[in-house]
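Task card 7
Instruction: Convert sequence to structure tokens.
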Amino acid sequence: MTATNPRVLETSTTSGTGELTVNGAARTYQRLRSAGAQLVNYVIEHETANEFEEGLGTITQGANDTLSRIAVIRSSNANALVNFSAGLKKVFLSFGSVQCGGAVNLKRPAVAAATSNTAIATGLEAGDEIDGVTLATGNLVLLAAQAPAAQNGVYVVPESGAASRAPDLYTGDYAAGALVPVLGGNENGGKVWLCTSPRGDDVVGTNNLSWQAIGGTDGEEWVSGPESSTDRAVATWDGTDGDTLRDNPDWTISSAGKMAGTSAYSPIVDLVDAGTVNIDWNLGRWYRLTLGGNRTLTVTNVSVGQMIKLQLVQDGDGSRTVTWFDGITWPGGVVPTLTTTANRWDNFTLACYGVDGYGNPLFEGYVNGLNFGV
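Output:
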């Protein structure tokens, strides 16, 4: 999903559960409005109290902009709206802030959602009521329980007559993974709705579309499933049909974020030999390269704190060398010399501990052992 994460930080002294008035950008930062988004993924942190909230909201520009909190993703109040106490709060954007209206899955907010069959021809006119919300011309409404389900989707409220599909999810569009925040309603407001229909069976106006509420200001969980038999167990998909979410008591995550389990492994990634060989750190934890000549090594997709093992194998001729990628610090400042004997190998560990002033990764290099062979 296309995302923007500008350098945004403002402060607010607003308390309560309503919209926040922000006081302008902090020094060297930008204002919330700089995201250029109708809908943003905000974070609010109290400076002195143990209060925080992350969610979806909208920004209204003014002398002092305001942030309306639509749906809570997670918070210090059991993932419900936080009643912020008096004092200074930091307000900034999470990585998920997106601009609506483009090729993204996050759609414009609907004013209400209907979870019972609604007459599209006569039941969505201005003045009609959906889930306690009185509709006005131009409002967007999510229909999630139509019969047939191919009618499900987002509609524009007309002054009178039949409603038409919104350009956000037009007839013939693909709806899989679409997210629609719902602003109001007695039962369905303050939640984000997800189209759960699979890709390939998600054509608007043709296929039956399924919608599910996945989060809201009432603290509702983002993912629902069976009750866990083990506290803090890792959820996995059932191994028979791949459709059922269940807990796996063999693996747990502590409140401190530490994972414990029985056993884990990472398959060896065999790199393709070439004059320049790139190591994509997204592919695994253990990499092996058989050197067919003198090679130059590069890296991509490196994260700070990540560590990999690299096995360099001499081919049948031997005496191959490598030019290491930049940013590696070796013990004593000495770059290791590879074993030159044919068909033998050396093992190294590379750990990314930070980045330089230009954002390039920095590594510690360790020699695990040299001159292995059978």
